[in-house]
Amino acid sequence: MVFGIFSCSSFSCQQCPNRCKKSIAFLQSKGHKVILGSLFNNVNDKYRSGSIIQRAQEFNELLEMKCDIYLSAIGGFCANSITPLINYDLITKDMIFVGCSDATTVLVNIVEKTKAKVIYGPALITHFGEWEEYYAQQSYDALIKAIQNPVNEVKEFEYWTQDYKNWDTFTSEKQKHKNSIIFQGEKTISGNLYPINLSSFSTAFNKSIKKIRKNNTILFIEDSNKDIEMVEKLFSFLVSNKLLKNVSGVIFGKYENFDDKGSKKLPHQVFIEITEANKINIKNLVYYIDCGHTHPTNALIFNKKIFIDFENKKIWQ
C-alpha cells in the first residue's frame, strides 16, 4: 500500500529527526511505499509546518497522487485553518484517511463531505516512531485490521504507556501500566461511531457537521494534556450545542497526562456530573480504552456501526 503523509498542523521532522526516520523505516519494513508531503521537512515556520495555503496545497497535491492511505504526520493546534481549502472533490470512496489529535478537524470534514473511509487512530511520527517495538507493532496491527478485516475488534492491550521519554532517542524503557477497562451499562448496544479529539473538534464544529447528530450515535472522546477545568469546559460545549441529544453511549479514550488539579476526579466523572445536571440520560459508558494519544493505539472507523457488549466486555465494529 502507498501511504501519503500530510502535515496539517505542527512541524514534523525538525523537532525529532531520528524519530521521523524511524517511523518511515517502520512502514517501509512492512512493504509499504511512503510518499512524504512537501512540508514534511519544512523548517521555515516556528509553530506549524507551513502557511495555511501551503498546508492546504500539500494536502491537495497528495490527493492528486491517489495514495491508498493518507496518514497524518503528527498533531498540533491549527489544522482547522486548512479545512475550507481542501479540494474534497478529489477524494474518492476507495481512499482511506487516518489520524488523531488535531487532525480531527480534517477527518471530520472528510467524513461529512465524502464517502471515503476515515479512521481515528495512529499518526506516523507519534506511533510508528516508537523505539520500543511493542508499541509501534501493536498500533500497526490495529490499523491494518481496521482496514482489511470485515470485523474491527477494539483491543484491550496487555499494557499501555503515556510516558514522554524516548522521543527522539532511546534512553530507557517507558513506564508500563496494566489495562483495566470499565464497562458501565447493560446487555449489548449498537450505533454509528463518531470518534473525536474533543478540543480539536470544538474548533471544527459548525452547522454542516451533522453525522454526530444521528440517532443512536456512540461517541468516542479522548484528549491530551488537559486539566480538569478544560475538560469540564469541553464537555459543557457538547451539552450547550445539543450534541448529546441522540447519543446512546460514550466510549472514553485514555486522557494522556490528565491533571485533576487535586480533585481526584476522572474525566468520565466530570462528564456524568454535567449530563446529570442537565438531565441528559446516558447510561452506557466505557472507560478508558487505548485510542489516540496513549500507546499503543486502537483504530476506530468513523460512521461505522459499533457494538458494545457490556456483559462480556467486548467492543467491535
TrEMBL record:
GO terms for molecular function: hydrolase activity. The keyword Hydrolase applies. Residues 4-121 form the LD-carboxypeptidase N-terminal domain. Residues 191-305 form the LD-carboxypeptidase C-terminal domain. InterPro entries: Carboxypeptidase_A_C_sf, Class_I_gatase-like, LdcA_N, Peptidase_S66_N, Peptidase_S66C, S66_fam. Gene3D superfamilies: Class I glutamine amidotransferase-like (3.40.50.10740), LD-carboxypeptidase A C-terminal domain-like (3.50.30.60). Keywords: Hydrolase. It comes from the Bacteria. The active site is at S101, E222, H293. The keyword Hydrolase applies. Belongs to the peptidase S66 family. PANTHER family: CARBOXYPEPTIDASE VC_A0337-RELATED, MURAMOYLTETRAPEPTIDE CARBOXYPEPTIDASE. This is LD-carboxypeptidase. It comes from Spiroplasma alleghenense.
